[in-house]
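#structure-requests
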Amino acid sequence: MDKLIGGWQWNGIFNAQSGFPMTPVVGINQSGNGDTRIPDVPILNPNFKGNVILGVDGFKKTGRYYDPNAFLLPTAGTFGNVARGRFTGPGFWNLDMSLFKRIPLRERLNLQFRAEAFNILNHANFNSPIAGNVVFDTSDPSKYAGSAGTITETANRERQIQFALRLEF
């Protein structure tokens, strides 16, 4: 009976993280300072009511993680007032699990059965809107960019399950 129910091992890894800081940017050098490495930031729209960050649920409904209407283009030659890293991107959580069974064959010879599941709950975690951080259309800054606030990829893979046999000697 011990050989049947003994020798099992269960492992689990739970990972939870808050989102990374993110900064919506204008997408062009509106200030005219010539620095193209760190794009200019927009101005917060004083007439905007509601949440700037729509979140993952808002993204699932509208296709945008943040509302671009919350921002205005700064006047040429001026800087925006949105602080760098002011907003937070999507959080991340994941659960991985494994189950092992050690089967003794001889004195110094064991067989191990392994079942491993990665992202066992099949939870989609989204990346920050990297390309979607550009709020205004670079060819026509009077318009919002079509990708503003959009998320284009997930931060993890779909559920994966694998089985293995391991010979220990």
